[in-house]
Amino acid sequence: MENEKELSGSAMLKICGFIVDKRNLFFLLFGILLIFSAFARNWVKVENSMSYYLPPSTETKQGLDLMDEQFLTYGTCSAMVANVSLDQAEEIKKQIEDIDGVFSVDFDDSPDHYANGSALFSVTFDYDEKDDTCLVVLDEVKELLKDKDSYIDTTLGDIQSELIGEEMQTISVLVAIIVVSVLLLTSQTYAEVPVLLLTFCSAAVIQMGTNFVFGTISFVSNSVTIVLQLALSVDYAVIFLNRYKEEHQTMPSREATIVALSKAIPEISGSSLTTVGGLIAMTFMQFKMGPDMGIVLIKSIVISLLSVFLLMPGIIMLFSNLMEKTKHKNLIPDIPFVGKFAYKTRYIVAPLFLVAIIIGFFISNRCPYVYGYSKITPPIQNRVQKIQEMQKDTFGSKNMVALVFPTGSYESQAALIKDLEAREEVQSITALANSEAMDGYMVTDKLTPRQFSELLNLDYEIAELVYTAYAVNDEDYAKAINGLDSYRVPLIDMLMFVHDEVEEGYVTLESDLKKTLDDAYRMMTFARNQLESEEYSRMLVYLNLPEESQETFDFIDEMHTIAGKHYADKSKIYVVGESVSQYDLKKTFSRDNTVVNVVSILSVLAVLLFTFMSAGMPVLLIVVIQGSIWINFSVPTIFDQPLFFLGYLIVSSIQMGANIDYAIVIASRYTDLRKTMGRRDSIIDTMNLSFPTIITSGTMLAVAGVLIGKLTSDGAIYGIGQCLGRGTIISIFITMFVLPQILIVGDTIIEKTAFVMNMPVKPKTATGLMRVEGIVRGNVDGVFTGYMRGIVRGNLNAFVENGELTEIKEEKLIEENKSIEKIDLNKTSESDSNDSELQNTDTDEEGSENE
């Protein structure tokens, strides 16, 4: 009854009481959410292309959108068959061509297609690459080659995402094992481990299932969010559980859970704000993969908070008895030597750290960032990468870009091709103006009626009639009447026109000629669909340059200049390809880098200002974590390791938002202890009390990052994991062995920069019998200053802060006194009973010893 009276006085306690008492309702709600999420996770679409997330203003994004609108891109695959002779390879080519749905197979005896006893077949399908029929035809090609030493590479399907998903499942299992091990070591009772795991797993499943609200998420978000969610939000559940264990020492399970939850909600919410603040910085990036991952991670944090606040209290109640029975010795030792070391080296370590972060700042600014995967070597290779590597080693690699320009005369296109082919950077070009049709004629060559008749073995009179019909259709009546002999029409246009005339029955051809025309029409249609539309044309330019280099980026700019000589409207000229995508990423990085740093620092700084009510403390903590970020990204510079740019943008945000929690734990403890203790004793006790929290959370995040970096084949995910693991380890080391010294040295600064908002307090006056609770300053039949909790009989004229003054009646006071005496009586009887039991126990033990 007494506990219930105490719990009924606060709105927060009432809310927490509702959550605990209605736990079965929340079990039901979370059960429904879990079942729904198990199905909804399959509705999430995953985007594997980096270029998809480029800003709309970039050339790559505009060019890709334009090509999707104007051109048809057919599905393709490259099939390598090893240990075959040239004759066997020719036979395989014919077999592939006979598959229904295969448009063409490029193969010859050149080194590009046959080398070292291996053959490379470039297979083009009869369908758009977005058509699922391509996958059916691809399976038939695989079936044909399954008994041979074959290796097939294609961009069709979602194989890369599937492989990354398999890798992340392995990583998740290993992280789960590490998490359980850490929890067992840092726990005080074995039964608290399933409490934490049930909370984590529920939040993870709901997180995956609710991603469908975004429609499409990036492969990076889909892969690493679950692991990062666990590592980032583990603190919330641990904080709540520790609060429960503290309250349970003096309260029953229900009341302890309610009080612990009421205290944990503001504490956990404050802790989560720094993490969310760091993640918010990612949403300001131009490169849209940053906002994609930032929003997904913020959602995961919110879901973790709701799981801790609404689901975990019920789980604690279920396991409360088991937690009592499975208590064990605390395995985390005190570390007084760290605090003593900090105090002795305070004037040495702090200046050295200042020098270190200045050096780190300059070195990290020279970090060798890359914007594609060509220079990155992940620790493992998946089967697709192995096939690509094998084909590259045998036949070399090609760096292709597409040049898109306004449709104009074929003469202008031929002149552009000539200028580009004159450059040593260009290996070859595929375009309509240089594609051979038949008998040495290019598809865009202009032929007279006689040349056309000779090409197709067509009667000259019929050729004249066809040319006349074409001129009339083209409204060129002068040529139709008296200028046919010199009338020239591009071969592709004339073949298309004749085919249409034959199909409509205006022209009749012999079967052999009809077949020749049909084959030519099929080839021309195939080429035109890919390379020409009514508004735009494109050509495929193969470069003798690496995929990523400054020389490549410079030549991309030169291609614009060369094309601009032949096409006046330069705004309609686009270069699109992997190299261009990396060039665009490089351009956006400088802006995104600045924005992410500024926004993350300001967001976290705002939270810290309100947390510590001091200007000095937030600055010191920001310097510590920002210093650890600079040191982290100095490592790739020192060891000359190319780093994918996305790793820096994401990890710096996570480090600033999440790792700073370790610094907050130490700073908060130190600030509280300094109110009653000296600097030396305060820092020793601070490190003893903070170590379990930091080692629990930090170990999980560090291990998660290291495993991601060691067990993935994707360059972007590899960079994120590697930097996150290393950065967390550096942050833990600095907060444990550098921050204490900084706090001691900066103690005076922290104190002098503290600010307190004093609100005006009106004096309260009363006469007679009254109850006073709060800090009292004023006249109480004399002068009284201090904290008062009691009954005043007399006159009161004083300021009452952080409390209240209530006038009461004499009768009510008498009733309360009787209740207090009853409670004291019960406590005395319980105490006597306990003493009696204790004496009996002592007697039993003495008896057993004597026996």
Structure notes:
It is elongated, with a radius of gyration of 38 Å. It has 851 residues and is α+β, with helices and mostly antiparallel strands. The longest helix has 41 residues, at 810-850. Strands 2, 3, 4, 5 and 6 form a five-stranded antiparallel beta sheet that branches. Strands 10-15-9-16 form a four-stranded antiparallel beta sheet, with helices on both faces. It has a two-stranded parallel sheet with strand order 1-7. A hairpin with a 2-residue loop joins strand 11 and strand 12 (441-442). The two termini are 45 Å apart. Mean pLDDT is 84; it is low at 1-9 and 820-851. Helix 7 packs antiparallel against helix 26. It is built from 30 helices and 19 strands.
- What is the number of helical segments per DSSP (H or I, 4+ residues)? 30
Kindly report how far apart the N and C termini lie: 45 Å
Q: State the total count of DSSP E strands.
A: 19
Rg from Cα: 38 Å
- Which percent range describes the beta-strand content? 5-15%
* Overall 3D form: elongated
Largest sheet: 5 strands, antiparallel
Question: What structural category arises from helix and sheet content?
Answer: alpha+beta
Could you estimate the helical fraction of the residues in percent? 55-70%
**Low-pLDDT runs:** 1-9, 820-851
